[in-house]
Amino acid sequence: MTFNEGLQIDPDRASSGGGPGMGGKLALGGGAGGLILLVVGLLLGGDPGSLLGQLNGSESSTVQPGTAGTPAHCKTGADANKYVDCRVVLTAQSLDAVWAAQLPQQTGKKYSKPKLVLFSGAVSTGCGNATSAVGPFYCPSDRTAYFDTAFFQELVDRFGSSGGPLAQEYVVAHEVGHHIQNLLGDIGRAQQDPRGPESGAVRTELQADCYAGIWAHFADKQPAPGTDQPFLKALSDNDIRDALSAASAVGDDRIQRAAQGRVNPEAWTHGSSDQRQKWFLTGYKIGQVQACDTYSAADLNNPSALR
């Protein structure tokens, strides 16, 4: 999968460095156990403010001020095919185009863009301070998706995902999926019922996976604004396998098994590897928001089983 090379990257779509105008210190929990907790709780959509406070540690990391604007080397689709930070930004532009068209048509709600911050090391957010250990996340309070692009190599090295572009783009699409939930008024359900295999938290995460699939359904068809050219060249079966690999890699059961040698569904917050793949595929195959109603699903293992 590649972007069409001639597409222009918006120089104002992202901020980079850290949270704009932010500063201060961040306490980082020490040891592998702390990092696993952060990953399990925050990977793909958690709340950094709620979990970071649970960790005790003496290491500190300076939160660097951000700079307005997309990284200067990100100009075209060809750059997005070469550099991961450019890929994140152009993926966000593709998501903007898809959701600006589909959200009003399918739900009657107007789409507004989430902010996008690329940071390195640590960042201050409307949900609290965070480091790169948390992985990518969306903060509802400031309507911003945060990415330390070094995470994408961690996704391969530590979690066993493929390194394909659509594996990375799936992560961006998932975070923007949380923004869609925020616009539709659903994201708060995760906190009302935060843990367990049938919990609101799991249903919220699986719905964001499904919304990521909706983006993939339209991404190689929806023209970039001002052009008749779609953002992505036609998706192949291998591209979809890359996205499924990333979804599988961050399933609760897989992370628990790797971290503690056993699976405890009562502690799930994101859903199993199999569930995450199935809900992504549902969005991809159907392309409709109503097909992603995880809250009405009688069986989360069977996306078609709506109540």
UniProtKB/TrEMBL annotation:
Alphabetic keyword roster: Membrane, Transmembrane, Transmembrane helix
Membrane topology: Single-pass membrane protein
Region (Disordered): 1-21
Keyword Protease belongs to the record: no
Subcellular location field: Membrane
Main location: membrane
Alphabetized Pfam families for the sequence: Zn_peptidase (PF04228)
Keyword Secreted among record annotations: no
Top-level division of the source organism's lineage: Bacteria
PANTHER family tied to this protein: INNER MEMBRANE PROTEIN, PUTATIVE MEMBRANE PROTEIN YPFJ
Record protein name field: Neutral zinc metallopeptidase
